[in-house]
Amino acid sequence: MRPLQGSRSRGVVVGTVTLCLAAGWALQTPGGVSLVVPQPNINATVAQNILLSVEYSCRGVATIEWKHVSSWGTTSIVEWRSGNYVNISTVYKDRVTTFENGSIQLRNVGMRDAGYYFVTVMDEHGTNAYGTIIVNVYGTN
Asked: What is the pLDDT of residue 60?
């Protein structure tokens, strides 16, 4: 692939990127939903407890959902509405703790817990924010 030639091409690209960014900001609802994942990669050993940490902000009531995706498939872990109900999958029932800030703790991890953890935060108006945490699990030697 060749680099762009001439200042006119660069101006078009910069203008297009600026326009796309402005359009994205314009589509956000006032307040909307924001999500921060402070630690996107976690290394753990078998039998360790891990914290999948996030922080979200939302106007109104938020729905938080966590899923795990690995070579064994996709599993819904937990879904809850802030201040309301918690629905934990039977597979994770005895191993997951939920927190007000959207984080979850996973106890006694095993090799099958390695993979991608996807969190979705949705407000009452359907505005979403997404985050991903990659978890590596290593055996004990």
From this structure: 86
